[in-house]
Amino acid sequence: MRNEEWRRDPAAYETRQELATRYADIDRWRHVNNVAASGLHQEARMHWLRQRVGPDAWYSDGVLLRPAVIATDFLGEGRYPGAIVAAALCTQADDQTLGMASALFQNGACIGQQQTWLQGWCNGEPVPLPAAVRQGAAGAFAHPATATDPAVAPAEHGPLPWSLSLMSRFGDADGDDVMGDLAVARLMEQARVTALRRAAPAFHEGIVESGLGIVVAHTTVRHLQYRRVVPEFDARIGMVRVGSSSFTVRTALYRRDACIAVADSVLVIVDRKAMRAASLPERSRDALLEVAPSAG
């Protein structure tokens, strides 16, 4: 996606709306958190659906419309207070899949872009798109650029050595009483951060000692099921790759014995004063490779 310049042009999108950032969206780095940014992309999709499919497209008492794959590039930092323009358009539509592109703009710059592939879901499993969605997407403006193939998303997570349990919240149930994609993203983030701190404490110590920071540069999430919220979920986490200035973490989220989502997250070490990529401190890199030697 990063090489597709049209995604960073607000005029390329069919719908646009201005949204205010909230104090609750800000994390310890005083920028819009990556899960909060994903919520703004979700609002862009919902706005397009309400315009194209109908005012009630945001909920369903039958077949649900939910993401199967979400690929997100985080290109810049969202700031509070301020306004963000959230834009969306349809990139593809067939009986099974609705492809949607979205982007976030603040002060004239694109700070994030996302490609989502939505499917119909019934009883937790994927089904053909609802007729109303297919009809609404018919004739919708679709950018001619070829969207990223959803097959790139991880479908099977392989061996993941770290595991932990995560408590859900009442608010994790969305408007259709299932575990929504933002709630999944929040649990994935919590699992990733907690596992790294437990398995490789020297990694974070090396980052702090060097005066550096960590930002999420990209995430790809494949949703395998949509089910109702249960009190506790299990997460399995592992390192996929350790580079010179970035690393990739894979997280699988389980509801009871069933895997409901798998995510790859690319994290980059940054010099926070210059806001550019920096090399992994030797102590931090050694700590990661000690617990995941095959990732190097």
The CATH class of the largest domain: Alpha Beta
Mean pLDDT, as a whole number?
93
Give the amount of beta strand, in percent: 35-45%
CATH architecture designation of the largest domain: Roll
Q: Let me know the number of strands.
A: 12
Estimate the helix proportion, in percent.
10-25%
What would CATH call the homologous superfamily of the largest domain?
Hotdog Thioesterase
Tally the helices: what do you get? Answer: 5
Please name the CATH topology of the largest domain.
Thiol Ester Dehydrase, Chain A
Tell me the number of structural domains.
2
The description of the largest β-sheet is: 12 strands, antiparallel
Low-confidence stretches: none
Class by SSE composition: alpha+beta
End-to-end gap: 25 Å
Radius of gyration: 19 Å
Q: What is the chain-wise order of helices and strands?
A: EHEEEEEHEHHEEEEEH
Shape: globular
Brief overview, please?
The chain is α+β, with helices and mostly antiparallel strands and 296 residues long. The protein has 2 domains: 1-150, Roll (Thiol Ester Dehydrase, Chain A); 153-296, Hotdog Thioesterase (Thiol Ester Dehydrase, Chain A).
Provide an overview of this structure:
The structure is a single chain. Strands 1, 2, 3, 4, 5, 6, 7, 8, 9, 10, 11 and 12 form a twelve-stranded antiparallel sheet that branches. A hairpin with a 4-residue loop joins β3 and β4. This protein has 296 residues and is α+β, with helices and mostly antiparallel strands. It folds into two domains: 150 residues, Hotdog Thioesterase (Thiol Ester Dehydrase, Chain A), CATH 3.10.129; 144 residues, Thiol Ester Dehydrase, Chain A, CATH 3.10.129.10. 22% of the residues lie in helices and 36% in strands. This is Acyl-CoA thioesterase.
